[in-house]
Amino acid sequence: MTVWTQLLSPMVTEAPKALECAATPLEIRGLLARLEEALPAGICDPRIELALAEALNNVAEHAYGNGRGMIALEVSSCSEALRIALRDQGRPMPEFAVPADEMPDPDALPEGGWGWGLIHACCDGIDYQRIAGENRLTLTFRRMES
Predict the structure, then answer these.
(1) Average pLDDT, integer, range 66-77
(2) Distance between CA atoms of residues 87 and 23, nearest Å
(3) In terms of C-beta density within 10 A (0-12 exposed, 13-18 middle, 19 or more buried), how is residue 41 classed?
(4) Which of 33, 51, 107, 125 is the most exposed place for a label (fewest CB within 10 A)?
(5) Between residues 132 and 79, the one the model is more confident about
């Protein structure tokens, strides 16, 4: 049983909300701006936007290689957790797996390499599957007490 199944089944409280955008920096910024509309009322968790921005930019840069493609996003929730599922038809992740949650050495002042470490730090669950030529990345966040 996945973390998502444990957290959300059988108590999904409202219908999932769907968004999509082209895998370009401008379109991703627009999707992130519209994200608040898709989140359940009362959800204000900076981890969500940070993890999602990193994941979406990874799709644009690595899955599509800054080429053309679309990203679909679906938001589902229950009283205990929020799930954001991303789908794209870009290249699969290396080794068909979520990269490790390692952070680069901050003393080396690297420009890149922070993305997956940040995503892991922000999420309570991460799942990746490659099904029928489609990447499916699911990020789960436990709801924080207000």
Answers:
(1) 92
(2) 11
(3) exposed
(4) 107
(5) 132
pLDDT digits (tens, 9 = 90+) for 9-21: 445 566 889 999 9
65 Cβ contact list (under 8 Å, min separation 6): 90, 91
Q: Ramachandran region of residue 97, left (φ > 0), alpha (ψ -120 to 50) or beta?
A: beta
At residue 106, what are phi and psi to the nearest 5 degrees? -65, -25
Q: What is the four-CA torsion angle of 92, 96, 100, 103, rounded to 10 degrees?
A: -10
DSSP summary character for residue 59: I
- Rounded CA-CA distance 120/113 in Å is 13
Length reported for the chain = 146
Nearest to 55 by CA among 96, 30, 8, 87: 87
Q: How far is residue 3's CA from residue 5's CA, in Å, rounded to a whole number?
A: 5
Compute φ and ψ for 125, nearest 5 degrees. Answer: -160, 140
What is the pTM assigned to this prediction? 0.83
